[in-house]
Amino acid sequence: MTRLRNYFLAGLLLTAPIGITLYVAWKVVDYIDSAVTSLIPERYNPNTYLPFAVPGLGIVILVVVLTLLGFLTANFLGRMMVGLGERIVARLPVIRSFYSAVKQIFETVFSKQTQSFREVVLVEYPRKEMWALGLVIARSAPEIQDKAPEELFSVFIPTMSFTSGYLVFLPRREMRTLDMTVEECLKMVVSGGIVVPPVKIILPGP
Questions:
Q1: How far apart are CA 62 and CA 57, in angstroms?
Q2: Which of 38, 41, 85, 202 has its CA 20 to 30 A from that of 130?
């Protein structure tokens, strides 16, 4: 019975990560396919006259459309159209604030020069002698710096849900920089500490 249990656990350990990953990937592909293909007119939609649905068609169309939009906005006419659209959005009371915030977040995250979410630190949170993993975003805004007695940094403390967290402002002296990648940090947080990054051994030089 012990051997059978061990074999079962070994099989579960082998198949569960693969199965869960494939299931989540399939759900994402299916969601994008259903959302994108529903916008295509029926006579141009291959799923209307084929005997089976084409998996991944929505993703292919989405990638092509986004690439085409990127190509169009790279030239003079495209930049003029984007500028016109942004001026129209800037006149809308609520939407302009939301659009500005989302645009700034995307530009910051996808910028090649940005250093946001590159450094993993250990901070005392939510009280002294209780430590949490955090991701350094950047130096705090000037409005916060002017009111603080010393230079502060914005630190994002993720939670197990991965999509939420806490934003705190800390001086550099209260952070402990870790030799850990952002991916390793998020894996550790989401798994509740079960997935621990491997120990990095630095060999002495000659």
A1: 9
A2: 202
